[in-house]
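User: Can you fold this complex?
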Amino acid sequence: MLERFTVGLDIGGTKVVAGIVDAAGNVLDRRRGETPSKSPQATEDVIVELVAELGSRWDVASVGIGAAGFVDAGRSNVLFAPHLAWRREPLRDRVQQRLRLPVIVENDANAAAWAEWRFGTARGEDHLLCVNLGTGIGGAIVHGGVLYRGKYGVAGEFGHMIVVPDGHRCECGNRGCWEQYASGNALGREARELAAADSPVAQTLIARVGGDLSRITGPLIAEMAKDGDPAAIELFEDVGRWLGIGIANLCAAFDPGCVVVGGGVSEAGEYLLAPARVASRRNLTGRGYRPEARIERTALGNEAGLIGAADLARWEAQRLRRWSLGALRRGVTARRA
Amino acid sequence: MLERFTVGLDIGGTKVVAGIVDAAGNVLDRRRGETPSKSPQATEDVIVELVAELGSRWDVASVGIGAAGFVDAGRSNVLFAPHLAWRREPLRDRVQQRLRLPVIVENDANAAAWAEWRFGTARGEDHLLCVNLGTGIGGAIVHGGVLYRGKYGVAGEFGHMIVVPDGHRCECGNRGCWEQYASGNALGREARELAAADSPVAQTLIARVGGDLSRITGPLIAEMAKDGDPAAIELFEDVGRWLGIGIANLCAAFDPGCVVVGGGVSEAGEYLLAPARVASRRNLTGRGYRPEARIERTALGNEAGLIGAADLARWEAQRLRRWSLGALRRGVTARRA
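Assistant: Here's the predicted assembly.
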């Protein structure tokens, strides 16, 4: 039998990535698009377009969508998305009808955590948390080889735990959410504020964007940190410290064996993770009297989400195939009886 | 066969309660003692004494201890206890040797959550969190009929999640832990501060303790709230609001179907729970677009911990019995073969 492939998609606050994924979690082909964040219809069009493009070159059996939003327990509907326009959106059925392929929808961080557990940093780790720093913070839990989805499917929204009373306003509508202090958005905001203050430490940064502060982004700060710019390094120390405080809180609640840090901001590597480890240790309750979780960077980078979404779609297809075979056998037995 | 019973013990920051528990979760006899918080040896003596007293009147088969501390995955050792003197204490083996009965040790909030799931408010609920407001805050998770213990056994330490950066100092060594804002200790501290400010609203409170502010306790405030004292009602509103904010955070992370609020402070009932429900709803991310957890008061009151500890000991004894019977049968089969 010829190998059939799965398309995985990762739909974040600003972009969509799609890829052809094989059974071993390898990405064999890739496409990218923009997320038209204010229109569910346009986002759906982008998904269909990317799958069609990949489908013209590969034999696609099913599709897994990792979406930056609250996905219901049936893995069909996006209930709410802080950074996108979805509100009670029946995404799976809409896309399935247009593609005429089996589709599953999963929270993007859940998909990424699944990939890290199956193919990445957390292989063999049975108590795992994922913290993905992109536009916001995505979170997920894998416990005993199963995604912990909660009662209604929306567990793992770590980014919207309130860590500063009356703090920064969050896109979710609350104030003081963790993702307002440890995410790509937070890094950009802090960098722009630093530049706006026109401090001597920010002069290199201001020069890099030719004085146009709106051009300051997370990736630029990461690049400058690697070049040794002290202000950029300090900005990562601040975000890393907040990351560590939040991880200490999660360890108090979940007591995991490993916390995998992923998402675009994690590309800064130790500039982010070293201060996060220090702050996590310093704020962990019972420290010194308990085993502590490893804090590790993603092994799959920004493809974790699409790899996980594809792998979950493949598992679901296998489950349905086994179920149909079973039903067929039960039917044959029933006729014979 | 005559029914044999289990002793359950609940060891909190200030007192020890012990009871004879039957298979249906009924408490048939009770004893109480003080917790000598600064001496592990003395705490152990109290445990042994209470079990011996009960054992002189009942046929005791096993003992379950719910302890206000971090209990390891083997349910043997108390690794750390913020409100007691235990540090890497081999509690199970010590007590077992002295009692010559099978003993299990479990975190007190885990024991209480188990009881609520088996016999109490959360019967039939498969995604449950427990938040117990006593000296501090104990927390626990029951997921799919199993206690979620985390990798190393110490999950559910919700009380030590940091909710106020650089906030009140906590017994665990950190600052700003949730239990510094929503617990019996927090209620007492706020009430004493209010009285110390000598405000007109605090005059009834000051009179009730004859001017001796050190006599202000949580139970007194609860009593005064029931008598309609506006200051006492406001104190519960403040603690209830913090309780709700923390519950909203937990719902973001765990997405449970039900949150059971127990512990001594929960005896204030709606004075505590009504403001907690309002604050939880107001601070829940994605509110209006997701199903929400019920927030309910314990059905078992301050006996939940001892009932759960006893029931867990009973389950463990049954598991061992089945295992021994199985081993016996396997032995017989092996000899025949």
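The longest strand of chain A covers residues 27-34. Chain A touches chain B through 50 residues (CB under 8 Å).
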